[in-house]
Design brief:
This protein is of the alpha+beta class and 346 residues long. Helices cover 52% and strands 12% of the residues. It is built from 12 helices and 10 strands. The strands form 4 sheets. It has a 3-stranded antiparallel β-sheet with strand order 1-6-5. A 3-stranded antiparallel β-sheet has the order 2-3-4, with no helix packed on it. Strands 7-8 form a two-stranded antiparallel sheet.
Length: 346
């Protein structure tokens, strides 16, 4: 386990009582840790757990000149205790070469992982313990002179605060792992590397979403499907689109990114949309109340995304034909008309 005591949870969250019985929350911690392992890879999680217990983690590597380490498809250089990737030293990562192994530590990733586990586990623990479960049934015990039951909106706000901190910790964890050699050899990294929208910052730049690595990972299956659709629309040569002009690459990336968001919105319920995407549909109701958008508002948003994806797909093909001195395709942005209207505007 990456967390070993109630005092650790207290230090990570600031709200959990350090004198609580740790055994009561152990199973919840293990369940959350297992869920995060599905996100970042089980070998990576095991490695971070070992590192959290001050155990040295080693990685095998190959080298041709004795200086440059080749791990996966990336090259690393170790100078003393500094690990360099592409000429810069990632924050929080320390590497030391001994023989044909690299001994590595990533304190930033370990702490972010511990925080993510702690926030989600404590939220679930609090929910399960709002009511006492006894042989005679479920009870509510309260000191009426000194305590009061929270209102429903207070519980909802507290849950939301814990979820926000959980997602922020996941964002920090994934950012800390992006330059980590342990993460670069995972299947999830290989899937990311096959996409033309390769990271959260690129997705945020293209679509206006918050730059959330966790949201990017959730969107990856939809990005892959959207890229397949755009590749079919582009035709032969899409695999070499990296050699195309910047305008064509930008148009293709726009089409892929917008299409992925539209796919997720159509196939995912409002309750299970990632928080980074749900923020688009939240409105401030004043005070402590927030209201989720109605389904018709979501539907309008997704239709707009689909229209924009169609525009960028046609623009990508037009730019390609222009570069090839072929007859350029002319595309018009037709309005989305209400079928109940008697007349159509052009």
């Amino acid at each position: 386990m990456i967390i070993k005591s109630a005092e650790q949870i207290r230090n990570l969250t600031g709200s959990y009582y350090a004198n609580n019985d740790f055994e009561k929350i152990r199973s919840t911690l293990m369940a959350v840790e297992d869920e995060i392992a599905d996100i970042i890879g089980r070998k990576v999680m095991e490695s971070l757990a070992e590192e959290s217990q001050n155990q040295e983690v080693t990685i095998s590597f190959t080298t041709e000149d004795g200086k440059v380490l080749k791990i996966g498809d990336k090259e690393f250089v170790v100078e003393g205790d500094t690990l360099k990737i592409g000429g810069y030293s990632p924050y929080g990562i320390i590497g030391r070469v001994e023989g044909d192994t690299l001994k590595i530590s990533n304190s930033r990733a370990v702490y972010a992982c511990q925080q993510a586990v702690a926030y989600m586990a404590t939220m679930r623990f609090y929910r399960l313990n709002d009511i006492s479960h006894e042989n005679a049934g479920r009870k509510v015990k309260i000191d009426k002179e000194n305590e009061a039951r929270p209102f429903e909106w207070q519980l909802a706000r507290d849950d939301r605060a814990h979820l926000e901190e959980y997602y922020r910790a996941l964002d920090r964890l994934i950012r800390a792992l992006e330059p980590d050699p342990r993460f670069i050899v995972t299947d999830i990294w290989k899937r990311m590397d096959a996409l033309i929208v390769k990271d959260a910052d690129s997705l945020a730049y293209l679509t206006g979403l918050d730059p959330s690595p966790w949201l990017y990972l959730r969107l990856m299956p939809y990005l892959s499907e959207s890229q397949h659709f755009v590749a079919k629309a582009y035709g032969e040569g899409f695999s070499q689109i990296g050699d195309a002009s910047e305008d064509i690459q930008h148009a293709a990336q726009m089409a892929v990114g917008l299409g992925a968001i539209a796919l997720m919105g159509r196939r995912t319920s409002l309750q299970t949309l990632p928080y980074g995407l749900m923020k688009i549909f939240e409105s401030d109701g004043g005070g402590n109340r927030k209201e989720a958008a109605a389904l018709d508002r979501l539907d309008d948003y997704l239709k707009r995304l689909s229209r924009e994806q169609h525009y960028w797909t046609e623009e990508m093909k037009r730019l390609r034909d222009e570069d090839m001195d072929a007859e350029p395709a002319v595309h018009l942005q037709m309005p989305d008309n209400d079928p109940h209207n008697k007349f159509m505007r052009v």
